[in-house]
């Protein structure tokens, strides 16, 4: 019967290991497609639509691997980038691998050459080849600064259109490749598994490092006599690359490696393939131009790692004088060391540019660092010469068909020139334009700005202003005068209308009075003639007054009296 506490401990360990594995970044992007699939290495791939906003998709003549059948080309911009989320702790390194396969996608049989960069740093130059079977890849290991990484391709010559087929991002464990601090990157030259039967990568290598078979010319191949292997070193090579080894055929002969590059970072992995018999000894030392290791014996069923940093010139593995067996090696990683990594464009400028890109969709095609690497800045910005943390000194968004209200980008306080002319910006001119301490020129011509020009601009003699072509725009004083004129004009119109109405009412009143008077007069004359006629037919000796009713103009009965005399 099993021990419950041991079972619980094992379950917790498995759960913890699964959690670590699931939290590690492991992203494979097939550029130029929207399809998701799983390849022959059990690696899940996704399309690239969520990682870039520019470029053209094309197909190639490749069928295997699947990602080689599509690509994304970038004929328009100087630099085009993918932005990739990498939620890893500060200081933890990632592995980024970019793949390129020309495949005559454009029918020109002319593979291009172009630049490759990551974040704000140069990665190298990509020389693609026309052969249908040639796959080119570049790999870098570095500590990402922030929550995203960028991979960019850039034109080095007109007509040389950059492209990319695939991007792989793999999170590494804390401490891996720790003999190089986070201020520099490691560019992979090659990663060898000596006398391995074939390439090794995921799932054998949980970090998906690619180990290619290699051998020593004229040497001997060995295979481990045990499958038991304890790999307890930080860089954690896969056990499968430690099952084989290469050696020289002569016990006194060393193994020599030559490198074309300076400033290399080298990991050497040593494993004894068989349990040595009595009297057999294998002691070796590693020599570089300026360093020699202590003698050591490769362990059996375990691994010994030797790391050489900042090395230049050839490297040799030699037997000691008392060794009875030749030197042996199982695997090796070789990197070149980058220059110190840039911090990128000043964070204030970067955040302000994000506001502009969020407001105007047309600007989202630009990604990566806006100023770096040098010579590969965004087309509409110019930057200071400081390559450590440059500032943006000029911004030209003229004639880019932008419309709407400007967000507040006043954090870009190193700007000397702002050109926004020939767009459709609207609303009032923002007051924050007066807050740029270094601004020398501001061009807002040919837009739809309205209202007054801020006095912080009109009163600043250090800024050359361009406002023409904004029909609803006015100087502060002119706006006030115009408003007063409108007020007076409105008052005059009201007075005139009132006078006209009073005059009309007065005229109507006069007409009504005249008409009433004339009507009453005619009525009186008519009644008088009637009475006079009656008097001629009667004989009365006394005079009398007779009162007759009549209808007034207001509809009420009134009395009209008159006297008759005999």
TrEMBL record:
<dbReference type="InterPro" id="IPR024788">
    <property type="entry name" value="Malectin-like_Carb-bd_dom"/>
</dbReference>
<dbReference type="InterPro" id="IPR032675">
    <property type="entry name" value="LRR_dom_sf"/>
</dbReference>
<keyword id="KW-0472">Membrane</keyword>
<keyword id="KW-0812">Transmembrane</keyword>
<keyword id="KW-0675">Receptor</keyword>
<protein>
    <submittedName>
        <fullName>Leucine-rich repeat receptor-like protein kinase</fullName>
    </submittedName>
</protein>
<dbReference type="Pfam" id="PF00560">
    <property type="entry name" value="LRR_1"/>
</dbReference>
<keyword id="KW-0677">Repeat</keyword>
<keyword id="KW-0808">Transferase</keyword>
<feature type="signal peptide">
    <location>
        <begin position="1"/>
        <end position="22"/>
    </location>
</feature>
<keyword id="KW-0433">Leucine-rich repeat</keyword>
<keyword id="KW-0732">Signal</keyword>
<dbReference type="InterPro" id="IPR001611">
    <property type="entry name" value="Leu-rich_rpt"/>
</dbReference>
<feature type="transmembrane region" description="Helical">
    <location>
        <begin position="494"/>
        <end position="517"/>
    </location>
</feature>
<dbReference type="GO" id="GO:0016301">
    <property type="term" value="F:kinase activity"/>
</dbReference>
<dbReference type="GO" id="GO:0016020">
    <property type="term" value="C:membrane"/>
</dbReference>
<keyword id="KW-0418">Kinase</keyword>
<dbReference type="Pfam" id="PF12819">
    <property type="entry name" value="Malectin_like"/>
</dbReference>
<feature type="domain" description="Malectin-like">
    <location>
        <begin position="29"/>
        <end position="337"/>
    </location>
</feature>
<keyword id="KW-1133">Transmembrane helix</keyword>
